[in-house]
Amino acid sequence: MSKNTKKSSSSKKAADNEKVPNEILENQRTRVSVGNAGVENTRGVYYSGAYTSLGYDNSFSLERFKKNFQIKVLQDKPDHLVFEMIGVDAPIANALRRILIAEIPTMAIEKVFIINNTSILQDEVLAHRLGLIPIKVDPRKFNFKQASKEYTAEDTLIFKLNVRCYKDENGETVNGTVTSGQLKWEPTEDQESMFGENPEDFPRPVHDDIPIVKLRPGQTVDIQLYCEKNIGREHIKWSPVGTASYRLMPDITVDSSKFDKKQAEKLKATCPKNVFDIEDSYQVIAARPLDCTMCRECIRDPEFENVVKLERIRDHFIYSIESLGALPPKVLFQEAIKILIEKCDDIENSLKEMM
Amino acid sequence: MASVNIPVLGGNKIEVVSERRDCATFIMTEEDHTIGNSLHYVLMKNPKVDFSGYSIPHPSDNKLNLRIQTKGETSAQDAILTGLNDIKDIGKHILETFNDAVN
C-alpha cells in the first residue's frame, strides 16, 4: 500500500515537472511580466512554428482571428474615445496608432500672406502660430493641392484676419488680444454649397478663444490665410489627434490563501490606485485592474513580492484616441484602418505591375 | 516634398532584388515601420515563410528593405502578396467589429 502511494506520488511529480516548462512558455506567450527590477519578456514571438512544443499553432488564421477578436468601448466622448481591443498583436495595433498620428489628412493653414503687421510679433512667428490653429472642416471634402497648380475651391480654404486695436470713447482698449474666433472664412467659387445651409457647419477654427497676438491701440494685423490638405508626417499641424496611444491590460493575480486580516488590509492599503478588494476569509483580489498603473508599489515589500504577480496581457490593448476636433475619434479610427488597407493595395498594385 | 498620397510613378515604389525564387529583398520607397513591421509580422506567421525581416537603412532615406525567405513551396513574391492580403483581412475585420461596437 505504502509502496503504491509512493509510486503514484512520484509519477505525479514527473507529470508536474513536464507541465512546468509548458506553463512558463505559455505564460511567456500570453503575458508581459513586471518585476521589481523592471519589465521582462517584452518581445512577442511571431514565428509560425514557435510554440509547436505547446501544441499551439502560432500561424495566422483568419478564422481564429475572427473568433478571438473583440472591441469594447470604455469611454465615448465627442473628442475622446477609449476602447479595449482584444485578440490583435502589437504590430497591427501599432500600425494603426502610427497612422492615426501621422497619416490621416486634415486641413491646416499653410500659406500666410501678411498684408500689414504692426504688432510686436515678427511675421514669421505670427505665421507659425497661425499654422498651428486646428481648423474644423471635414478634410475628406478636399483634394491634396498639387504644388505646380493654382489654388482651386477643391483644395484650398481661405481665411482673412483683419483686426485693428483702438481705444473707444470710454478709453477702453478694443481688440487688445486677437483670437482665433476673429478668423473670417472667405468662400471661393461655389465653396459655400459644399457645407450645406447651416452656418455652424462652415469652416472655422475648432476653438474661438485661442490668443494669436496681443495688440496696443493703433496696431493692426491684416492677413490672408490659405489652408491646404496634408498629413502629420509632413508637419505636426496636420495631425488630427492630440494623442493616440495604447497600453496593455494589467493582469494582477494574488496568492492570498495564507493571508490573515492584517496582511490583507496591508496589501490593500499599499495600492495608491485602490485596485484591490478584500473578499471572504481575507482573500485579496484585483477588482479594478484597469486602474492599475503598474507602479509596482504592491510588490516592493518583500512580504508580497512573491505573493502578487503583476503581468500585462500581450494581446489586450486599451486604446485611447483624443481628437483635436476636425473629425470625431470614431471616424479617425475608421479612417486609419482604411488607410492601412489602402497602403497594402498600393504595394500590391505596384508589385503586380512589376511582375 | 513628395507626399504619401502622390504615388511614385513608373513602378518605382517597389524594387525587387532576387536571385532565387524562394528569397527576395523588396526595397520600398515612401514606406516606414507602419507597413514594414506589420508585413514582417504577418509574414513570420505564414507557415510557408522561413524568415522575414525589415530594416530602414538610413532615417533620412525614406527607404525600407524587406527580406523574405520561404521554405521553398512558394515564391517570395507570392508570400508578400499573401502577407498584404492578410493585413487587409485583419483590417476589414477590425473595421467591421469596431463599427458594431460604436454604433
Automatic annotation (TrEMBL), chain A:
UniProt GO BP: DNA-templated transcription
GO molecular function, one term: DNA-directed RNA polymerase activity
Alphabetized CDD domains for the sequence: RNAP_I_II_AC40
Keywords from the named record: DNA-directed RNA polymerase, Nucleus, Transcription
PANTHER family the record matches: DNA-DIRECTED RNA POLYMERASE, DNA-DIRECTED RNA POLYMERASES I AND III SUBUNIT RPAC1
Annotated organism of origin: Cavenderia fasciculata
HAMAP family reported for this sequence: RNApol_arch_Rpo3
Subcellular location: Nucleus
Family, as annotated: Belongs to the archaeal Rpo3/eukaryotic RPB3 RNA polymerase subunit family.
InterPro entries given in the database record: DNA-dir_RNA_pol_30-40kDasu_CS, DNA-dir_RNA_pol_insert, DNA-dir_RNA_pol_RpoA/D/Rpb3, RBP11-like, RNAP_Rpo3/Rpb3/RPAC1, RNAPI/III_AC40, RNApol_insert_sf, Rpo3/RPB3_RNA_Pol_subunit
Region (Disordered), start-end ranges: 1-27
Cellular-component GO terms for this entry: RNA polymerase I complex; RNA polymerase III complex
Chain intervals with Basic residues compositional bias: 1-10
Pfam family, one: RNA_pol_L
Residue intervals of the DNA-directed RNA polymerase RpoA/D/Rpb3-type domain: 80-350
Biased composition (Basic and acidic residues): 13-27
Name assigned to this protein: DNA-directed RNA polymerases I and III subunit RPAC1
From TrEMBL, chain B:
Alphabetical list of Pfam families matching this protein: RNA_pol_L_2 (PF13656)
Example GO BP: transcription by RNA polymerase III
One annotated Gene Ontology cellular component of this protein: RNA polymerase III complex
UniProt keyword Methyltransferase present: no
Gene Ontology MF, one: protein dimerization activity
Boundaries of every DNA-directed RNA polymerase RBP11-like dimerisation domain copy: 23-96
Keyword field: DNA-directed RNA polymerase, Nucleus, Transcription
InterPro entries reported in the protein's UniProt record: RBP11-like, RBP11-like_dimer, RNA_pol_Rpb11_13-16kDa_CS, RNAP_AC19, Rpo11-like
SUPFAM superfamilies: RBP11-like subunits of RNA polymerase
Places the protein is found: Nucleus
Assigned protein family: Belongs to the archaeal Rpo11/eukaryotic RPB11/RPC19 RNA polymerase subunit family.
The name this protein goes by in its record: DNA-directed RNA polymerases I and III subunit RPAC2
